[in-house]
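Key idea: predict the complex, not the pieces.
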Amino acid sequence: MSQMVPMPLNYLNYDEAVAKYEPTLGLEVHVELNTKSKMFCSCSTEFGGEPNTQTCPVCLGLPGALPVVNGKAIESTILIGLALNCSIAPFSRFARKNYFYPDMPKNFQTSQYDEPICVNGYLDIEIATEEGPKQFRVEIERVHMEEDTGKSLHVGGATGRIHGAEYSLLDYNRAGIPLVEIVTKIVGGTGKYAPQVARAYVSELRDILRSLGVSDVKMEQGSMRCDVNVSLSPLDSGTLGTRSETKNVNSLRSVERAVIGEVIRQSNRLEAGERIVQETRHFLEESGQTRPGRSKEQAEDYRYFPEPDLVPVAPDSGWIEALRATLPERPSARRARLKAEWSVPDKEMTSLINAGLLDVVQETIELGAEPIRARSWWLGEISRLANERDVDPTTLITPTQVAEVISLIQNGDLTDNLARQVVEGVIAGAGRPSEVIAQRGLKVVSDDAALMLAIEAAIAAQPETAERIRGGNIPAAGALIGAVMKATGGQADAAKVRELLLKHLGQ
Amino acid sequence: MAAISRDDVAHLAKLARISMNDSELDHLAEEMDLILGAVARVQEVAGRDVPPTSHPIPVKNVVREDLVRPSLTPQEALSGAPAQSEDRFKVPQILGEE
Amino acid sequence: MATALAAGELSSVDLTQLHFDQIEKVDGAVHAFLYLDKEGALAQARTVDAKRAKGEALGPLAGVPLALKDVLAQKGIPTTCGSKMLEGWRPPYDATVVTKLKEAGIVILGKTNMDEFAMGSSTENSAYGPTHNPWDLTRIPGGSGGGSAASLAAFEAPLAIGTDTGGSIRQPAAVTGTVGVKPTYGGVSRYGLIAFSSSLDQAGPCARTVLDAALLHEIIAGHDERDSTSINAPVPQVVKAAKKLDVKGMKIGVVKELQGDGFQSGVLSRFHEGLDALVSAGAELVEVSCPTFDYALAAYYLIAPSECSSNLARFDSMRYGIRVGDDGQRSAEEVMKLTRHAGFGAEVKRRIILGTYALSSGYYDAYYGSAQKVRTLLMRDFSAAFALADVLVSPTTPTTAFKIGEQVDDPLAMYLNDIATIPVNMAGIGGMSLPCGLAEEDGLPVGFQIMSPAMRDDLMYQVGGTLEAALLAKWGAPILDKTPVLAAR
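Result:
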């Protein structure tokens, strides 16, 4: 970890930093909801449309236009709150957050301020350490609704960065897409595990959001974005340091690296007798470091006040309980259950989760495949083929197709070797497994008479080998089995060939 | 309440994104003092036990269905734009960053 | 007029043309209009005439011309809000009120002058020059909807639409001798009404008679799913109420705090004549006290500027409106500041700064927060008063129309014009102003205000209709027959 920063003399590396300072975290996650229409108008939320094709008087902030809340967005937010063990406020309101920025059409963001819809929740997470798994409870302060901004494109200038731009072009398709902001309370007591805790929290949160079906949670596309607040205080000082806020950290790995980077940077400033400035910083993917952005010391005064164009959201208990009844199984509980049901070793379970294959494996098993085969096909051959193509395994083949192949193996209609050819055929677009089998004639030769002819031919071609086998040299059978397999075009069941061959040679 | 200084007004003008010269600031500081002096009396009757009212009518939970309706065309959306390029609103260089 | 149209004695095209002729003749002096849509108006008139010729069923005001306050978005028609900021802006959509007017076959003549972004009581704050009161061209026509009211008094239009945030329909009606109604908040959709103060703004009808106002009221009112604050309930039956002409047994609450000090004697004497007329018609007067009214003006001048500071933030030259100072070097931030400096007038800037202050951290509780509490107290005052009376009444304004330029440099004096109208907006209830005679000292119209409980707009129409009939019987002719501009017709 220490190689991430240049190291002048006396420079603390991460391990040295956490030996002297206690990190405290705060995590703010923004999630774009996957509603069909925007938060306050009926424009489409689809990603990647031509510029300004998904706008209307409301999301362009035209004079006179008024917002109306998307009911689905409220329900999604309440679901998130419930899944995070929050209390759902019996009365909540939208507020205007006033500041000027060209990508924000009204020059205020409709958000929630002192009356958010969900408060006081928690999320339990687990991290792996040298001393075994450790649990942490991350407390949630609030979950609230707001709207996304438009996108600006900076044109001209030397670097293409904002400061060098000659002008900017604005596309408001994204303006008004529903966002949910999930804010933790101060996360302390993590010690040196702060980076892993931050990552595990975001990861678990992502799994929960995915299981709820309320968001695409694609960090790389920006539908889930994380701001990481870090502060340091001298060990056992009982004080809280000044925090920095690192914006838009857009992968799980970056979350972990951003915490490490800030711990190292801040500890070295403190060591040098400098103070930490409360500011926004930007994460640099390449180096894992952060660079300063706006200083919060000249922070805007957002002049929040209740949004007069919207009315309060006051969900009654009937509404809340109806939503609670639709909550899916908690991802951590589901993982524990599946792990036991399938008897999966720890390491393999981790691989399945990290590869995002849990859902497809579960589906494959539900379609009748043996758990061990389902796991090994998805993690093995299919993942290998996906790696070669640099795509997600789940985009290559469906659980139904995999289950069909496994069922043929289980029935003895395909050997593993043949099945690999079938899977390759399906992935190559040759059709369903049955179609690939029919086209390529990939069928196990199970006719004993046909196999015996091939075996006799092999013995005739290699009489000395046959003699050695008769003499008790069983391993020599490999050469003859290979010849039979070759003669049958690989379609024979090797075990069957071995059995018949040995029997024929008196073994 | 303390008198409103020219610097206070300058700060407010900055928050409100309105450029003002010195004489405008001076004039407004004077007027603000007068107006605030007159409106500050709201504090006389606003007791702790009085709840604030932000909506004159007690309506709640007004939501719409999550349905997509046709948007404006880019031409309509951009029809009032002072400048445009490539179906986008063209604006001067944006300082600061998000 | 509507009757003549329905009977086929007059075509809508002729009627529309007659009004354009009158506008041509007098609007140079009055300056009620900012924009005339002759082509669109005559096209709509022709459509209505054709439908009538075919015997199609038409609404009661189909084919009748109307003047639209320039605060409402009308697709393709310049909509400026009386501000330089929006010079040349043509909205790509219609306000819900405009959609309803068009569907009712009403002919929109054009857009009327107003105080910039509806902030003012005299229409002197328009970036396009003041409107003159047809009763005396040296005087103000009230504001912010001075253009709409003046167009009625000058017979340039028989109907108009106004918007009322603190009295912008009723005060102009009072000083021009016309009828103006602010419906219950949420009764008429605000979609497409360019917001000044969202929790106070309400569009409403302006007319020369209570019945005309009621007919127009029923056309523009009703629930709108595009406005979250729109009331989802049947529209009060205001036309039926306006035709009742009966107030026997009704209790009329006279607000103690809205008379006396600061009220012109001629205003008070005409107001009392109105009260007498109601008593003669069988109503019972009760005095009610609303002690918080004394604080309403102060609270209003915190709430409205606070909301306006946020509502007007969008005028930043990025997406629409004028842009000032874009020399290819300046940043977006600098161009915004220069545009807002040049595009907004003094009163708008004053209120934006005041509102920015009232909402800023450290001052919010003392100013905005306290004002919201006063609002609660005002609503309590009203509910106590409505427990004693069916409607409340007062003079609409403390004085008759003042001279143009007289109060323009004294914002505090200007704000006092709205002292009797503001409590209605703060509580979201209904309010109407109708003429109750001319003040003896200056011969200028005096307005009589009727306030009704929320969603009981029918009650003020019932009382207003009765009062109007009683006064007409006494005068023998409508008060507007005395407007001097009429002579020039």
